[in-house]
Every structure is written in C-alpha cells, then in structure tokens.
Amino acid sequence: MALRALPYVPVEDLHDRPHVLVDGATRAGSVLTLSHWPQSPTPAALARDLSAGIVFAFLHASQGRLPRRSGRSSVAVRAAIVAAGRAEAVTNDHFDEDGLVSVFAMTEPEIALRNEELLLDVASCGDFGVVSSRTAARIAFAIGPLGEQAAAEASEAGVLAERPGSWSGPRYRAVLERTVELLGHPERFRRYWEHEDAALAASEEELRTGSVRIDEVPEVDLAVVTRTGPDTRPADRVAAGRAERATPIHEVALHSATSASRILTFDDGRCELYLRYEGWVRYMSRQVPLRPDLALLGEALTSVEPTANRWVADGVGSIVTRMRPEPEGRTGLDAAVVASTVVAYLKSAPAAWDPFRPGGALVPVDEGRHPK
User: Fold this and answer.
1) Domain's final residue, options 133, 167, 184
2) Distances (CA, A) of 190 to 96, 121, 181
3) Which residues lie below 8 Å from residue 138, measured CB to CB, with a gap of 6+?
4) pLDDT value of position 239
5) 139, 142, 249, 332: least CB-packed within 10 angstroms?
6) Looking at the structure, do residues 164 and 238 belong to the same domain, yes or no?
7) Residue 128: enclosing H or E segment and its boundaries?
8) Are 264 and 357 in a shared domain?
9) Can you say whether the dihedral through the CA atoms of 180, 256, 91, 19 is positive or negative?
10) Cβ-based neighbours of 235, under 8 Å, separated by 6 or more
11) How far apart are CA 55 and CA 88, in angstroms?
C-alpha cells in the first residue's frame, strides 16, 4: 500500500488547517498527535520511546501492519489512520533531531522506511544522547548547525523579525531539503559535524582509558561520573562546560555508556546532578524512576556547603533537570559526602513529575508518590 505523504507547514502558517502534530503538544487543528510528550493523546499501541519511533509505528500500521493487540487498541490505531487522512499538513512547534526525523518520515514516508534504523539512531542521539553508530552521530550533529545557518540567513533577510514565532520554520525547511543527501552522504557535511565528532571521540577515549570513570548505583538508577585523569577536551569545550554544565565528557559518550537516568558528575572541584530527558517523556522500553523535586536536596547541600556557593536546582518540569552549586558548579564538599547525600535523597524523595499521570505530569505535593 502506498503511503500518503504530507507537506510540512510551520505552525505559524497553519491557521485552521487540519494537521498531524509530531513530537510536541496537541494544538488547535491537530487531527492526530504522534508524540512521546506527557499527556499526548497518541494511541497506546503506537507508544514508543521516541516520537520518531511513534511515527514509524504509525507508518507500519498504515501499511496494514497493525500492532499485535486486539480490541480497543486496534480500534484506536485505525481511528488514528482515518484521522490522518483528514490532515493537510504535518508540523512541529520546535526544532530538534527527533522532531526533524518525525517530520521527515511523514513528508517522505517511503524513503524514511528504507532508512528507519539509521533515522531512529539519529533521533535517539539528539533526544537522549544515546547512539549506536558514528554515522548517526555525525548526521545528528549536523542537523543543529544546518538549522542555525538557515535561521541566521532568515534573520538577515528580515523574515524572523517580521514574523515573530517563525523561528522553527526556516530551520525545518532548510534541513528537510537536504535530509536525503545528509543520510546518503554525511561526509559532504563535515564542516557541520567535525567539531562535535572530535569531542565525542576524545570522550570515548577517556572512558576507554579510565580518565573518566562511571560507577553505577542501580538501586536509585544513578551513575556517578568522575574525572580521574587530565582533561583532554578542546579548550573551548572546557570553557563552555564551566559556563553551562559540569559534565566532564561529551554527553553522547556518557549516555551511550550508561542507561542510568540520573547522572552525578565530579570534575576538578566541580559537581552537577541532572535527571535525563528520558524521565520527562513517556519512555516505554523500560521503567524510568519518576522524578523528585531537587529543590529540597539543593537546600540540604547548601546547608553543609563550606564555601559561600549555593546549590541551585531547575524546576522539576525542565526537560533536563539540573542541580549544581553556583557559581560555575564549584563545591567545597567532599565527593563522597555529596554522593551519599544524593543517594539517600533519591531513595526517599516522593515523585514530583509523572509523564503518565492523567491530568498533568506535575504531581501535587499531597499526591506525591514515594519510592518503593
């Protein structure tokens, strides 16, 4: 059965046109939503870790390969296929790798299905920092810079200034035009991915040699990451890390090496705890521990911090929730003290974010679910 291809239309150009919304939150005019976001109305039988995985499941179902479920699940999938038939476009309200793959699969379904494994690896690299092949990593690394270049050109032409909110449209249009070439010939895009690729290679070597060590604490789904050797990262990446985050190696190298959804890092007196994106979305392939609010943990660490630095936590609803001492992530606490405090808190803190919770992912305090 030939698959129906939908044109991509930026959200700001949709108006009231019926559309398929991928990798985001349902909006007015969405006749079908294919997304792993919290509260997504995506049929349960199509649910996957990635929005791109959901889109591919939908494409397979559209070809008659329905999920092996009966009753209401099959009815819901068939209803989704019928709903998509009313759509005049596919869209997304933000630009990233999982979104790009999802949109591309709906605009070029035949090509996408022939490259399904590679495209899912690209989406996984972008969303979760988990990748199986260097080719997929390079393609994923090129997508952002290609989109940024298109946005810069649109800004210079006055497009973005004249049309507030249209920032994702130029990015999608530019990268969608080159996705087939990017998949088949990533070497042609070397200038877009080579810097990130070199950083990834350096981090993989540090893990191999033991310059960076990962110790897992399975009972709280935590990985403790410690730099034990000299920092071999490029100087600009080290400087950026000090300004933004304390992760001692490239996150794709780290996330591909451990499945732990909570990461605690130590690097030359700097420290950070973060809860990976897998805990924000409806992750299906394994049960990810529900997120606690890190604010109380930050207060506890601040109370014993020997320096004047204060431990600051992002809100629990942040896509990636981070906590670290400010400024620059520096702490005077011994790493063992920080680690034991973090582990104890993760064991006892109630859940504050549940992407599967009906009515909203943010869990009210009086409804807080405690770890088993």
Assistant:
1) 184
2) 19, 19, 13
3) 186, 189, 193, 197
4) 47
5) 332
6) no
7) helix 116-128
8) yes
9) positive
10) none
11) 17
Same domain, 112 and 236: no
In a domain? residue 189: no
Are 71 and 112 in a shared domain? yes
Q: Are residues 160 and 264 in the same domain?
A: no
Mean pLDDT of 4-21: 94
Q: How far apart are CA 340 and CA 177, in angstroms?
A: 50
| 204 within a domain of the structure (yes/no) | no
Averaged over 257-267, what is the pLDDT?
97
Domain end among 165, 184, 203: 184
Torsion angle of C-alpha atoms 263, 92, 148, 122, degrees rounded to 10? 50
Tell me whether residue 112 is in a domain.
yes
Name the least confident of 124-133, 272-281, 363-372.
363-372
Which letter does DSSP use for residue 240 in this model? H
Measured in degrees and rounded to the nearest 5, phi and psi for residue 324 equal -160, 160
Length of the chain: 372
Tokens representing 360 are: 């909203």
Q: Do residue 169 and residue 254 come from a single domain? A: no
pLDDT digits (tens, 9 = 90+) for 296-342: 999 999 999 999 999 999 999 999 999 999 988 999 999 999 999 99
Non-local (6+) Cβ contacts of 359 within 8 A are: none
Total domains in the chain come to 2
Task: Note whether residue 114 is domain-resident.
Answer: yes
List pLDDT tens digits, range 52-85: 999 999 999 999 876 665 556 788 999 999 999 9
Phi first, then psi, for residue 199 (nearest 5°) are -65, -40
- Rounded CA-CA distance 75/67 in Å is 11
pLDDT tens string 208-230: 999 999 999 999 999 999 999 77
Residue with tokens 């392939």: 285
The pair phi, psi for residue 171, each rounded to 5°, is -65, -50
> pLDDT-derived band of residue 266, with 50, 70 and 90 as boundaries?
very high
82 and 180 part of one domain: yes
Range of the domain at 323: 211-367
DSSP string, 247-303: -SS-HHHHHHH---SEEEEEETTEEEEEE-GGGTS---SS-PPPEEPSHHHHHHHHH
Structure tokens at 249: 């190696």
